[in-house]
């Protein structure tokens, strides 16, 4: 089965001196089958690359691959780069995929592409006018991965042939380079051909050996004199003299293309290959390329030359009627010119016989195009742009010609370039959009359109060069008469770009200035104030953070949440109240109020900082399940719009953070590593990297992997640089935690003291958000025990003021560790009691082990054994290997032997746990529940503790959580 655009049919000639390449091709094709000689095998795809300068026979090898694949019944997909067609984004991808989807209507396409349709339709050229959200490049590449994988699976085996890869568009190359390693696991063979000296950086992976791709490029060598002699004698007869054939070899340099073309012309001239024919042979050889080719072209007449020029300007797949219009000749003259160029072996039938033409070889097209004088070439491109638009081929096809035309202030050209840029943006190709919009700006546009065009250019550069976005938007905002709504969008995008370039102070200032400027537009003013509060909250160097908090509180208390502007302010207030350590009931009330009318994660003019913050408020307030639900919905919203770059990186990372806070350390590590991997490959995702590195370090430390945490920190220079944006968990606190794990208490104490001074200046006093006092107490426990106790006591007070059981329990555990004695044992017991009322499984395991160790040191071995066994089980189920090792060590030191785990790790509630939870929700006391379930009150508390950890909530959130939690 072959689903591809038909390629020009070459004359059938044997491939000389290509045995090695053909053997590799046969072996690769055989690897696609599930049986070989009746013996089952696992199909294996891969990459086969043929390289060499122009004329070395790369295309002939691909044609042979096509023939052999078809002969075996394989699906063949193909595409080819074009020297003058590298501008349209995803042109090569469209060549490959469109023929395979050509028989489907829109319903069929939507069914085949599933949820990816809206993300990749523009990139694949399936929609004439893209609309909706603009996907990010990562989302489009992920979608193309899915499309090609689906084609490979549904039409297996598949052979993908890509010729002239060095001339492919950047967007296609970038995607192909990332996708190619997957071919090994599919029944997909990718065969590429390219000139190695012209291969762009985006395709560098194809030019070097790769174990991942199973690829060793085959560099094609020139033909030997024997092979050239064979080609010559096949045309002129066996009587061709050896000396004549040797001269043919020398003059062609062993180039298969030149040798074949020369031999054909020798045959057409009826030459016999004798010494007397040498002068004529040299003249014919000179006419194959370069000046000789141009001289031969001129001999065909002015009309034919103009037609050839027009064809060279159009590039591949030349439509004769378009070339005729560009050349300004009639249909009859065009037909005559076509026939002359066919006879002269300049043009041949193209992909659709009778409908398109192609140059016989790219060398010919290049030579002719470069011979066109600058003025004439510009005029032909201008005519081509008009002809292409008139033919209904779209602005993207016309725009590549406009890029070759001088600027003339043409309003139609500006409109065409803007529409092509819009298509490029919806295709996930911001770099292509930037080139087009820059050119439109140079045209220039009408004065009243300049601000809008600058805004479009700024949006195109945001993901690839946010510093350029800042420049463009500042220039746009200086233009007069901007519509207020457009101006608000510009200002928001400017603040976002400033924030992404670590210029948080400027972002906050811009929003504040615009709020004052928009006094006549209350809704816009409120929106700007909301942005000011957001960016101010994320500044590390905010001068009057308490003052901002008070202003935010006064404003929020007057709002009902009736519009998105009000809800964003309420969400900011919820976050700020949490940071300041206000009672969590108040914090949760603001969060619920903000969510009541909905907070979109993908609103292009509002960002997702506030929705993310509101979701995390529930995590800090001991309701991580609610946070996970909000994250799941928000990330699904992002993915549905094709936002799979920094949005997905941060979403995955913070989802991992929630799992870490719940004590699911293995899951947390996997999620955060995935988030970091996405951030590493997405341009401009530095904030997402900061989040991911800190959370991953904390997770590794919780798992007892100190060396791995250090390697990660050193790899990213974590701890060396302090970002200007507020990151959570706080980077300096995380780094101090690493120092403590390495036994570097003094350094950790100095760092945490600085953190404390910074947070105190902002009145951010919630140990649930930043437990700097707990780390400082541990660091000072030996050198300054009294200070250590005071810090721990203050942390406990602040945690109680906030009211989250996990924060209270963690602070009590730290206080117990630095207090010691009978008072310390009492504090340990309180810590365990608080943490049993929270969903924080890892912190509970830590507290249990700490309490057990303290009891053992005090000689209370029976009580110690119970705590240590519980702590060991909790540590194992959390994936905290280091803590589990400590528990076993403490048991051994106390003369106790670890017991087998008493229960399996599961998130499903038992019937008894469910009953206890439901009775508690209904308001029954522990005594009543105990009587109903025939347990002690202590047993009920343990049941409920398990419920909180499994469901991911505390008692306050139990009613809501039970409604959606699956029954056993």
Sheet with most strands:
5 strands, parallel
C-alpha Rg, in Å? 35 Å
Amount of beta strand: under 5%
Low-pLDDT windows of residues:
5-10
Describe this structure in words.
- With 968 residues, this protein is mainly alpha-helical.
- The protein is 63% helix and 4% strand.
- It is built from 47 helices and nine strands.
- It has a five-stranded parallel β-sheet with strand order 4-5-6-3-7, sandwiched between helices. A two-stranded antiparallel sheet has the order 1-2. The chain has a two-stranded antiparallel ribbon with strand order 8-9.
- A hairpin with a 2-residue loop joins strand 1 (35-36) and strand 2 (39-40).
- The chain is elongated and about 115 Å long.
Would you summarize the structure shown here?
The chain has 968 residues and is mostly helical. 63% of the residues lie in helices and 4% in strands. The protein has a 5-stranded parallel beta sheet, sandwiched between helices.
Brief descriptors of the model:
968 residues; mainly alpha; 47 helices; 63% helix; elongated
Set out the fold topology.
Elements: H1 19-31, E1 35-36, E2 39-40, E3 46-51, H2 58-71, E4 75-80, H3 91-101, H4 106-113, H5 117-120, H6 137-154, E5 158-163, H7 170-179, E6 188-194, E7 218-219, H8 225-236, H9 242-252, H10 256-268, H11 278-286, H12 290-298, H13 302-314, H14 320-327, H15 331-343, E8 347-349, E9 357-359, H16 362-371, H17 374-390, H18 395-402, H19 411-426, H20 430-442, H21 450-461, H22 466-477, H23 484-500, H24 504-517, H25 522-537, H26 545-556, H27 564-580, H28 584-595, H29 609-620, H30 624-640, H31 646-662, H32 665-681, H33 686-702, H34 706-715, H35 731-741, H36 745-762, H37 772-780, H38 785-802, H39 805-819, H40 821-835, H41 841-857, H42 861-878, H43 881-893, H44 911-921, H45 926-933, H46 937-951, H47 958-964
Parallel strand pairs: 3-6, 3-7, 4-5, 5-6
Antiparallel strand pairs: 1-2, 8-9
Helix pairs in contact: 1-2, 8-9, 8-10, 9-11, 11-12, 12-16, 13-14, 13-15, 13-16, 13-17, 14-15, 14-17, 17-18, 18-19, 19-20, 20-21, 21-22, 22-23, 23-24, 23-25, 24-25, 25-27, 26-27, 27-28, 27-29, 28-29, 29-30, 30-31, 31-32, 31-33, 32-33, 33-34, 33-35, 35-36, 35-37, 36-37, 37-38, 37-39, 38-39, 39-40, ...
